[in-house]
Amino acid sequence: MTRRAAVLISGRGSNMVSLIEAASASGFPADIALVLSNRSDAAGLQRARAAGIATAIVDHRSHPTRESFEQAMDAVLVEHGIEFICLAGFMRVLTDWFVERWAGRMINIHPSLLPLFRGTHTHRRALEEGVLIHGCTVHFVVPELDAGPIIAQAAVPVIPGDTEESLAARILVQEHRLYPHALRMICDGSARLENGRVVFSGDWSGEGALRSPA
């Protein structure tokens, strides 16, 4: 069964594009049925329209409270029959009400290997801490910021001379691969949420490793 998914964006929507491209493939278990933004000038809206995806704008600035903004968003999502939400550069902190309403049905991609470097400026902080491996994480959204059950992670080596920009660029490549993979697993049932943790079906190999320095 194909799940109707919405992607929430605030800007260019590069991860949104990777999700749309993946979902266009035959047999993908999710259909990107809506792209919703809190900003009318979000560049990703035009990219979604060009791909034939329905779009909606719920401007947070036109609502007196976070609650009324989220209620308006929720109404649009329900109107479009959305079953699953993917946050992709959606730059609004969500209230507990919205998170709990969509509990187990909303995922996010974060540019670090959680639980390391929650919040913002993850690449700068990784370089300041001197870590040798950095990456990205797809996780379920819970009321606590960047603390939800982890679905998938990808790691990249931090190399001498890296800047925030060079490290971010390499991690973004992995984000574009990881997010569709995580959405597929959740929607086809090979990864499922049970008692606050993600449980996986199928066999795992423990042979692979990323080392830095190689």
Estimate nothing, just give the exact number of structural domains.
Answer: 1
* SSE-based structural type: alpha/beta
CATH fold-level label = Rossmann fold
The CATH superfamily name is Formyl transferase, N-terminal domain
Measured distance between first and last alpha carbons? 42 Å
- Low-confidence runs (pLDDT<50, min 5 residues)? none
Query: Average pLDDT across residues?
Result: 95
The biggest beta sheet reads: 7 strands, mixed
Radius of gyration over all CA atoms, rounded: 17 Å
Highest-level CATH class: Alpha Beta
The helicity comes to 25-40%
β content, as a range?
Answer: 15-25%
Number of strands: 9
Instruction: Give the overall silhouette.
Output: globular
List SSEs in N-to-C order: EHEHEHEHEHEEHEE
Known CATH architecture: 3-Layer(aba) Sandwich
Function: Catalyzes the transfer of a formyl group from 10-formyltetrahydrofolate to 5-phospho-ribosyl-glycinamide (GAR), producing 5-phospho-ribosyl-N-formylglycinamide (FGAR) and tetrahydrofolate.
Catalytic activity: N(1)-(5-phospho-beta-D-ribosyl)glycinamide + (6R)-10-formyltetrahydrofolate = N(2)-formyl-N(1)-(5-phospho-beta-D-ribosyl)glycinamide + (6S)-5,6,7,8-tetrahydrofolate + H(+)
Protein name: Phosphoribosylglycinamide formyltransferase
GO biological process, one term: 'de novo' IMP biosynthetic process
Report on this model:
Helix 1 packs parallel to helix 6. It is built from 6 helices and 9 strands. The strands form 2 sheets. Strands 3-2-1-4-5-6-7 form a 7-stranded mixed beta sheet, with helices on both faces. A two-stranded antiparallel sheet has the order 8-9. The mean pLDDT is 95. It has a single domain, classed as Rossmann fold (3-Layer(aba) Sandwich). It has 214 residues and is α/β, with parallel strands linked by helices. The longest helix has 25 residues. GO terms for molecular function: phosphoribosylglycinamide formyltransferase activity.
